[in-house]
Specification:
Length: about 375
């Protein structure tokens, strides 16, 4: 530490103190080489005050030191230390090759690719280097760098400078670029309408189809005239013929609002189902009466049966779907038991012990039917 004397040195800034060596001052002024100033973090309050009094540190240096704060948030990224330099390792905790195989082809539409990637990496912290490695694998280095430039990531091109930075802040711009460069290709086969089914709520069906179209095309089917026409045409063509015919008779169906279109479809489906159920009930009643008639004719022949005769009992039904299971039952006195699980029951030589009441039960996949009793 050198003592500088001189009156002019009293008001001279510390950074110019070296040029004032040899001048005389009314009080001692100390000058310390910059590289010899101790680290302020190791100084006590008394030493700091003494340093201020001796002009070894300035008020500005002290204020700057006091303004230093710890980071508000810490983040961790996959960093590999090599020697004294940190190197980011892309996909250090996940199989990138396996991920590439599970993702859809980005050239068929970035919307599907982005959705699948976010599902695969949900809960994982992605860095810029992860996307660089993934896009380089899929698109090649040159195309990957073009995407980075267009997404505002010029600082990440040809340098690992931003590889370890969080990708979240660049996500919106990157996804926007990819969607612009790789628009969704519409596959008519995948957009073919699905059948509504006999028990599905038509309102739920329409909601599900609208959602499916949004996922397949990346666009709102009701967002423009062309998409609206394609979407509604696929819905109408997927309906049963009576419903389709009724909807085709509606004037200007494709020009109506989404709510009005849905109301027309729901009404047509519900009306068709009511008519179908009415026809099924009528057919069921007709089959029941026919079965009773057949068994009634068999009952009329019972008076001609004598002991020792051969008797055959047959159970028939015109049910739709066809009957696939039969069973004959005998009632003798207060007892009832199943005789045989078959359509026909035969008695080569009828005896008194065979006396009683007989009836058959029939089943198809939808219902069960019981015949009248034969004596």
């Amino acid at each position: 530490m050198e003592e500088l004397q001189g009156k002019d040195a009293c008001s001279t800034p510390r950074e110019n103190a070296r040029s004032l060596e040899g001048q005389k001052c009314d009080f001692p002024l100390y000058y310390v080489e910059q590289d010899k100033i101790p680290d302020l973090d190791s100084w006590s309050e008394e030493e700091i005050e003494e340093g201020k009094a001796n002009r070894m540190i300035s008020e500005k240096e002290l204020r700057d030191r006091q303004k230093i704060k710890k980071p508000a948030k810490y983040s961790q990224y996959p960093i590999l230390i090599k020697g004294t330099t940190g190197h980011y390792v892309p996909w250090g905790s996940q199989d990138m090759l396996g991920l590439v195989e599970r993702l859809p082809d980005i050239h068929e539409g970035a919307g599907k690719w982005i959705r699948a990637l976010e599902e695969e990496t949900m809960g994982k912290l992605l860095a810029v280097g992860d996307l660089k490695a993934l896009l380089a694998r899929l698109l090649g280095m040159a195309r990957m760098e073009e995407v980075l430039m267009k997404s505002g990531l010029q600082a990440a091109v040809n340098t690992p400078y931003l590889d370890g930075a969080s990708f979240d802040q660049f996500r919106p711009a990157m996804w926007r670029t990819l969607r612009e460069d790789y628009p969704t290709k519409i596959d008519p086969k995948s957009l073919k309408g699905e059948e509504v089914g006999d028990t599905v709520n038509p309102a739920n069906y329409l909601h599900r189809q609208l959602k499916r179209w949004k996922l397949e095309t990346g666009r709102n089917p009701e967002g423009d005239e062309l998409m609206t026409t394609l979407f509604r045409t696929s819905i109408v063509e997927a309906m049963p013929p009576p419903v389709r015919s009724r909807l085709e008779d509606v004037v200007g169906l494709n020009s109506k609002t989404h709510r009005e279109f849905c109301d027309h479809v729901i009404h047509a489906v519900e009306k068709y189902r009511k008519e179908e159920q009415k026809l099924k009930d009528q057919e069921k009643e007709t089959q029941r009466k026919l079965t009773q008639l057949q068994l009634g004719e068999l009952t009329k022949k019972q008076c001609d049966i004598t002991e020792g005769s051969s008797v055959n009992l047959t159970c028939r039904s015109n049910a739709n779907p066809p009957v696939d299971r039969y069973a004959w039952h005998q009632i003798a006195g207060a007892r009832s038991w199943s005789k045989r699980p078959m359509q026909n029951i035969s008695f080569p030589s009828i005896q008194a012990l065979h006396g009683g009441q007989y009836y058959c039960t029939m089943w198809n996949p939808l219902e069960q039917e019981i015949s009248t009793t034969v004596y």
